[in-house]
Amino acid sequence: DATGLLAAVADTKPDLAIVDVRMPPTFTDEGIRAAVLIRAQQPGVAILVLSQYVEERYAADLIADGRGGLGYLLKDRVADVTEFLADVERVGSGGTVLDPEVVAQIVLRSRARDALAALTPGRGIGMLTAADVSGAVPAADRGVSVLATVGVRVPW
Predict the structure, then answer these.
(1) Edge to edge, what strands does the sheet with 70-74 contain?
(2) Fewer Cβ close by (within 10 Å): the C or N end of the chain?
(3) Residue 84 burial by Cβ neighbours in a 10 Å radius (0-12, 13-18, 19+)
(4) What pTM did the predictor assign?
């Protein structure tokens, strides 16, 4: 469980903690939240997160400080034991290993925030320009897509 993980890391000060996103008691996001806390409270402990999906809110928080000793891998891509052990070694020695899907989700989130920032007072979704968002999708459709990406329900 996440509480036990936090206590164990505080007591033993390991070089590396391998953490599953989903941990008891609710099996939702306790593990990734614990990883964020470990990263903040125990900067000498490398973190390798394993997950079935990208939890981009927390992934971005883990990556934001720019320090090494961090990995975030999707479980369905961790099939080759030799490659996984190399990733563990890399993270444990201060490197960074990120699943390409993690990177894609974080970039998408960043682009969505940038596009939302372009919606300043006086500018609506229909007024987004090619400079505001990338892609060949019409600005209004792209705006709706951006809003949906960041969790805003669009009624039309």
Answers:
(1) 16-20, 46-51, 70-74, 96-98
(2) C
(3) middle
(4) 0.68
